[in-house]
Specification:
The protein has 197 residues and is mainly α. The protein folds into 2 domains: 60 residues, Orthogonal Bundle (Arc Repressor Mutant, subunit A); 120 residues, Tetracycline Repressor, domain 2 (Orthogonal Bundle).
């Protein structure tokens, strides 16, 4: 791993752990072992490094989200995604940034965060629409609204887990969301043949 990659990886971890405001260039240099000259050669400002690190954190979430797309049964994909093991006590790599005032007030830092959530919402909307089209969810379900709901469950689950210092609230929130989806699923109509038995 070259010095640039090491700086980005280190900053990505520190953003996840501490946020932008509480991470200094010195923190990055000390943890990465990269010298000041090399750091400023690759990244003239802390913000430049943070943008690259945010992109890395976003990229690390995409493989899991890509599991929502595919040829398999859409409800099976949704269930696998919601039950996928996560370190809930560390929170979301991207959602963590929305709690940082300096990120919220800086368009250059907020833009990749906003884009990541927009992309995730589109992915969720697509798989939920597939579930409706396949008859796995009721036709009256609005995939756009439900996508926001499920994303809010995930982000809220992280908050609850961190507040309690216990991953169970996150796990139970995801399981509860699945319970609601299964409860909403249309039940097969009893055939005329079955009714005559």
């Amino acid at each position: 791993m070259n010095s640039r990659e090491l700086l980005v990886e280190t900053m990505a971890d520190l953003l996840w752990e501490r946020g932008y405001a509480d991470t200094s260039p010195r923190d990055v240099r000390e943890r990465s072992g990269v010298g000041q000259g090399s750091m400023y050669h690759h990244f003239p400002t802390k913000r430049d490094l943070a943008v690259a690190a945010l992109e890395r954190n976003i990229a690390q979430l995409r493989p899991a989200e890509s599991g929502l797309a595919g040829p398999d049964d859409p409800m099976a994909r949704i269930e696998a995604y919601l039950l996928h093991p996560r370190d809930a006590l560390k929170g979301c790599r991207v959602g963590r940034m929305t709690q940082d005032r300096q990120v919220r007030e800086d368009p250059a830092l907020l833009a990749p965060v906003t884009r990541a959530f927009q992309d995730a919402h589109e992915t969720w909307t697509t798989v939920l629409r597939e579930a409706v089209d396949a008859g796995r969810l009721p036709a009256e379900v609005d995939p756009v609204r439900l996508a926001h709901t499920l994303m809010a469950v995930l982000q809220g689950g992280y908050v609850l887990a961190i507040a309690h210092q216990d991953p169970r609230p996150f796990e139970e929130a995801c399981a509860g969301a699945l319970d609601l989806l299964h409860a909403a699923a249309p039940h097969p109509t009893t055939s005329t043949h079955d009714r005559k038995k």
